């Protein structure tokens, strides 16, 4: 049975796209970014495509391609577009699928819906990306609490970057969450680096 995972993070700039590339390469999965907000000439889809080495992965078209690099609700308003949850359909594929969100769980899509509402509608399992910084324990626990409160299935957490056992252990002990992977900081993020990382890191998928 094919696996479908929604990759979300405890905030912005914590490595969701790099982690998504690792998971796409590991599972030889398809990739789908439902909403691209800004950077249309170098989208997350383009970035992941340029980081993988396998020839099986297919890259599905975004549902919304917004021209401005802001929160989706604001970018959509500037583009005179209304983001509607009913327009999101999981791409048809016989392959595994990695879905990458935009920002964190509480990022607004319109006046009433958030990224977490999109995840709930798609009814897929979540992999949460965490990265160690002052405040990351709080942000990680809040994200897990939010997912659990909506009965969203959580596959586990990816700790991205330099290891911090104190931080990781308290998150695991407090939540009982599984660790999908510990992904070390890459000196240079490129195709070879991703391939070597996937070959050397243990993934619990």
TrEMBL record:
One of its GO terms (molecular function) is dethiobiotin synthase activity. It is an enzyme of class 6 (ligase). ATP binds at residues 44, 100-103, 184-186. It comes from the Bacteria. It catalyses: (7R,8S)-7,8-diammoniononanoate + CO2 + ATP = (4R,5S)-dethiobiotin + ADP + phosphate + 3 H(+). Its main location: cytoplasm. InterPro entries: DTB_synth_BioD, P-loop_NTPase. Catalyzes a mechanistically unusual reaction, the ATP-dependent insertion of CO2 between the N7 and N8 nitrogen atoms of 7,8-diaminopelargonic acid (DAPA, also called 7,8-diammoniononanoate) to form a ureido ring. Belongs to the dethiobiotin synthetase family. This is ATP-dependent dethiobiotin synthetase BioD. The lineage of its organism: Bacteria, Pseudomonadati, Bacteroidota, Sphingobacteriia, Sphingobacteriales. The gene is bioD.
């Amino acid at each position: 049975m094919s696996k479908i995972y929604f990759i979300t993070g405890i905030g912005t700039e914590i490595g969701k796209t790099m982690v998504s590339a690792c998971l796409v390469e590991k599972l030889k999965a398809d990739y789908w970014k439902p909403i691209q907000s800004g950077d249309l000439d170098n989208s997350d889809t383009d970035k992941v495509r340029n980081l993988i080495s396998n020839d099986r992965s297919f890259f599905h078209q975004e549902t919304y391609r917004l021209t401005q690099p802001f929160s989706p609700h604001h970018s959509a308003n500037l583009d005179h577009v209304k983001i509607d949850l009913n327009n999101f359909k999981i791409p048809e594929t016989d392959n595994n699928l990695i879905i990458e969100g935009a920002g964190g769980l509480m990022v607004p899509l319109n006046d009433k819906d958030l990224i977490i509402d999109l995840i709930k509608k798609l009814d897929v399992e979540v992999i949460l990306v965490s990265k160690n910084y002052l405040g990351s324990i709080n942000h990680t626990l809040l994200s897990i609490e939010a997912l659990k409160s909506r009965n969203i299935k959580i596959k586990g957490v990816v700790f991205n970057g330099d290891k911090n056992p104190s931080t990781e252990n308290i998150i695991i002990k407090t939540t009982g969450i599984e660790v999908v992977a510990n992904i070390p900081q890459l000196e240079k993020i490129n195709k070879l680096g991703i391939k070597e990382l996937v070959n050397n890191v243990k993934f619990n998928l």
